[in-house]
Amino acid sequence: MQLLKRVGFKAMSLPGLATIIVLMAVVPLVFVLYNSLILGTERWLGLWSLRLPELLWNTLSLAVFVAIGCFVLGVSAAWIITRRSFSGRKLAIWLMVLPLTIPTYVFAHIYTTLLEPEGWLGFAWQAVFGKTIPIPDLYNVHGVALILSLAGFSYVFLLVRMALLSANRSLEEAGRIQGLNAFQVFWRVNLPLLRPAIAAGLAVVVLHVLSDFGAVSMLQFQTFTLSIYLQMTGRFDYQTAAGLSLVLVLLSLTFLMVERVFRSRQRYYSNASDRKVMAVKPASFGQQILIWCWLGLIVCFSFALPVIWMLVWSWEAFSNNLIDVRFWEYASNSLLVSGIVATLALVAALPIALFHARKQSRYSMACVHLSSVGFVLPGPVIALGILSFILAWLSPLYGTIAALVIALVIRFLPLAVQSQEAALQQLTPSIEQAGRVLGASPLQNLYRVVLPVIKSGMVSAWVLVFIDALKELPATLLLRPIGFDTLPVRIWIEASEEMLELAAPAALMIVIGTLPVIWFMLREEKGRN
Fold it and tell me: Going along 175-321, which residue ranges are E strands?
């Protein structure tokens, strides 16, 4: 009995909870490893000689281009909005976040339609440049990178903006006293201090790129994810799909290790007494024009054009009475699943983030890396891994919403871990120590000290997971119960059949469904603006 109590206590400790959650998260990886072992040496050599070099080059080049695009868009927008006061500043915050509401496959479908010769952008291009300069082609690495950058830069914007709002502005004032201009202050003071937030944001972006299925399949760009999906659904070759998935996992874990090394020891603390509240510098009339030229360009292509397209085709659907009661069932199904997944992922990620923040060890870093496995595996592989586990150990859950929820929690757990860990890196250790000195228990310290400090990071984590779960497609296609369709499933079905007037309302509903949670997240920061 004493031994059982001791084991139970260890399991309920922070390392124990983190370990249990990580073991659940690596279930799909076990499926990948098992099927990879069945793949013989000859088939591995065949993959290396025929497929792997091209897939590695395509995937890595795409990740680099998207990381650069998201860095430029996200960091520039965050710095302008947090360090300059201009007309429409609060609206600009919303407009920088709203692109997260649009799935990558919707972005790809909309822009391929708009860039056709009879599309809006295609017609405008020919009117300006004529037919001598061809309309830009999205069916290449640069086109896919553009789509994924427009869809993903908001992750960098959110984390960098949160870091800028929490930064000690006395350092910026000291730079100005030394004669630095605004750009020099950003380059020499802000950018070094923002490295943890930028690294966390780009990590999320690159993990999205490595596991993206929607955009690469729409634009027919061969990456690991698309090849894995084709192996599983076209050839039913699960061993080859598992082998490709294993290479993708190793590639992603290597990236995460490099990112951790780059971010190691980049922790910046400042005492509350040292913080100096500075008024945001007002922008002149000329600066406001330049600001809105840049932000307006971003908004135009990342949100305005796609939403206008959705509104036009949705109006066509409503005018022709093509929307019935089943459409609202799809919307309620999506919102229900996304809310449950976001809440469970937030709770599951907290022990991992806390463990790594408090215990900077190889084991805690391994827990963070392994918790990211679900995000780097393609959705179909995660779905089949969970399905195999459920059939073997939890057969009553087969064909239920619970199976879908488990897969999506594993899928988006890294989002919650990254966001909460970035917030915890700004928690000065002396604050926690003061609570313990005053007699607070670990749970009281967590509830009264830690959670209030990282509240904005937790809200951001919940919102990010909710939005991504709302847009998830491949895992939902495979694990949804019979008759349980969601908005992404309907978008995929209608878009594949070129029924634009039916795909647009579902895409628009995803945007509308995410507005309340984004409003809630931004309301938490209202006092900082």
Answer: 281-282
- pLDDT (0 to 100) of residue 279: 61
Question: Which residues are registered as beta bridge partners of 281?
Answer: 84
Q: Please determine, for residue 259, whether its predicted confidence score (pLDDT) is greater than 80.
A: no
- The CATH number for 522's domain is 1.10.3720.10
Q: Strand, helix or coil at 357?
A: helix
φ, ψ dihedrals at 85, nearest 5°:
-100, 125
Residue 120 has pLDDT above 90, yes or no: no
Residue 145 in contact with residue 153, Cβ under 8 Å? no
Q: How confident is the model over 97-103, as a mean pLDDT? A: 86
pLDDT tens figures, 140-166: 999 999 999 999 999 899 888 887 777
Which residues, listed in sequence order, are joined to residue 84 by a DSSP beta bridge? Answer: 281
Q: pLDDT tens digit string along 2-25?
A: 433 443 434 457 788 888 998 888
13, burial (CB in 10 Å: exposed 0-12, middle 13-18, buried 19+): middle
Q: Cβ neighbours of residue 435 under 8 Å, at least 6 residues apart? A: 444, 445, 448, 449
Are 158 and 107 a contacting pair, CB within 8 Å?
no
* pLDDT tens digits for range 369-390: 788 777 777 777 788 788 878 8
Question: What is the pLDDT averaged over residues 162-173?
Answer: 70
Cα separations (Å) of 392 from 33, 182, 183, 389? Answer: 17, 60, 59, 5
On whether the CB atoms of residues 235 and 89 are closer than 8 A, the answer is no
Sign of CA dihedral 459, 152, 500, 472: negative
Q: Do residues 425 and 267 lie in contact, with contact meaning Cβ atoms separated by under 8 Å?
A: yes
Angstrom CA distances, 87 to 97, 285, 290, 292, 459, stand at 18, 10, 12, 9, 27
Q: Which residues touch 469 (CB under 8 Å, ≥6 apart)?
A: 337, 338, 341, 342, 408, 411, 412
Q: How confident is the model at residue 31 (pLDDT cuts 50, 70, 90)?
A: confident
First-residue to last-residue Cα distance in the chain: 56
Report the number of distinct structural domains present in the chain: 1
Q: Which amino acid is at 339?
A: G
Distance CA 315, CA 81 (A): 34
The angle subtended at Cα 489 by Cα 483 and Cα 493, nearest 5°, is: 105
Return all residues near 387 (Cβ < 8 A) that are at least 6 apart.
Answer: 398, 403, 478, 479
Name the residue range of residue 205's domain.
Answer: 2-528
Q: How is residue 241 written in tokens?
A: 């799909």
Per DSSP, 279 falls in state P
Extract the tokens encoding 304: 């305005």
Spatial distance between the Cα atoms of 294 and 409, rounded to a whole number of angstroms:
36
| DSSP letters for 329-387 | HHHHHHHHHHHHHHHHHHHHHHHHHHHHHH--SHHHHHHHHHHTHHHHS-HHHHHHHHH
Four-point Cα dihedral 194, 197, 200, 206, nearest 10: -60
Q: Identify the three-state secondary structure at position 470.
A: helix
Residue 441's pLDDT is 61
